[in-house]
TrEMBL record, chains A, B, C:
It comes from Geodermatophilus telluris. PANTHER family: INNER MEMBRANE PROTEIN, UPF0126 INNER MEMBRANE PROTEIN YADS-RELATED. It is a multi-pass membrane protein. This is Uncharacterized membrane protein YeiH. It is found in: Cell membrane.
Length: 215, 215, 215
């Protein structure tokens, strides 16, 4: 396994922490789970994107080679369990933490793909997959339609953040500042999208779900 | 990675295109998604079967080594988004495209497994998994019971198509015509099953879902 | 691939059989599926945990290198299809078989991780993931909230069984008796938890699902 650069590692652990808090708070909101269930959903949300990324890269998932990911994810889940039950409304922190994880993972996923020698288009796609992967597993497990399908501007900011990372690397301008900037750009687009309920073009009319069976 | 034969590649890209159209039309029918959500579901449906196949083979998913798959999948999703909203009824094309993808992937999945040196039984299973994999991911993401569980004659034609491929290869009769024939056989069985609502034997009586919790 | 020890192999096949029965009976209870759907859910439940384990270990999934797993899983599914439709109530056997599979896979998953050279903490996590993995796929496919999230004491006994395995190996006390003991310990905790409806600490109050959208 290629050793990740310190910048990627730091941003990756930060994203892991944000998604662990997010997943655990989602568990608190969606169902009355015990502490193990809450922490489990936090850990899956936190590690899911990176695991999908590494499976697609066909390298050993970094989670099982670097204990820090698991420790950060479990700590985030526990902290959310303890603090979350005191919060009156969980929607706002859940949304912000999800956007933070999305942004950080889009950047680190693209960066890791480049480190492993993938081409620019593949790095962009893999960055976006890393960003949306953990949240998609989370949504499937709690039986919600995944944000990446239902939610305005979710994949788009991830693609933008990953593209910014790839372009910066092509220009030899990669570094902590660039990575943080790319993540901030993704975060901003996502939060503006949430605030103003923006979305990509819709179909001109929604065909009603017709009642015939699918098969 | 073993280079795929030109025949396998062509059929594989055709199956990718069929499933991309199918997934995107499903997205249009099931929910009012924006263009990104529609294309995303198309791409996941199109690439899902091959990714699961390559993960089970423990080789790098071909999707990320060959940009043509991603391009074909994205193009299919976009075409379906543009054309699908003009369609009055989506059920028929969705069913036909799903059967086409199922058939093509059952054949190419079995062929790829044989190319990589797996035994005949494993190649049959892997062909069927490739055929049903993308549609299963699609159904989980839009919260439907997967076709492979609920739908009459879905896994069976995939197993038949994969078996025909394995037998033809054992008889040294593989080639474009044989592959197309095996896919056509699978497609025919599936469509006959849909038309006449055929299914494998049912339990003699359906035990009602009893109300006790599962645990 | 490292050859598994005979003890691990025997326990692994036993767990495969238990989960195949469990998954197929779940299919009978949850929906009126035909024989192919019932066997398919049995096979996925039986093989899912080991496949997730091997994907996380980045080794070829043993299922596709050792036909015995597939044969045992398919046989279990068929037996459950034939015998299950005569059963009046399926809840009790489903619960017991699930606990048996959970226990056996937690032990064999941890053992396999140790054989492949992973550290103790990772072996514990991987054992638990192996134990809960197949049932989680099963629950997602039939659209139930996964037991690992919803159910009292489900991950906890798996973690205990995996930890016992790791400790025994560290003390050079591994062997058939120890492995069976660790599995029995896990099974006992799980069944006591089911019987008395035990669970880990809950949040002090359940925040109602607030009505704002997630994004």
């Amino acid at each position: 396994m290629t050793a990740a650069s310190p910048v990627l590692l730091a941003l990756d652990l930060l994203g892991t922490f944000a998604f662990a808090l997010n997943g655990a708070l989602t568990a608190l909101r969606v169902a009355r789970l015990d502490v193990v269930g809450v922490v489990t959903l936090g850990v899956i949300t936190a590690l899911g994107g990176g695991i999908i990324r590494d499976v697609l890269l066909d390298v050993p998932p970094v989670t099982f080679n670097d204990w820090r990911y698991l420790a950060v994810a479990a700590a985030g889940g526990l902290i959310a369990f303890v603090s979350g039950r005191g919060l009156d409304r969980l929607s706002a922190p859940i949304t912000v933490l999800d956007a933070a994880g999305l942004s950080l993972f889009a950047v680190t996923g693209a960066g890791r793909a480049l480190e492993l020698g993938l081409g620019p288009a593949q790095a962009v796609v893999l960055g976006a997959v890393t960003g949306v992967g953990g949240g998609t597993l989370r949504d499937v497990l709690v039986r919600q339609v995944p944000s990446v399908l239902s939610s305005g501007l979710y994949a788009v900011p991830a693609l933008v953040g990953a593209t910014a990372t790839v372009v910066a690397t092509a220009l030899d301008a990669e570094g902590p500042g660039t990575a943080a900037g790319a993540a901030a750009l993704c975060f901003l687009i996502r939060m503006v999208g949430v605030r103003y309920d923006l979305h990509a073009p819709l179909p001109s009319r929604a065909p009603g779900p017709d009642e015939e069976g699918r098969d």
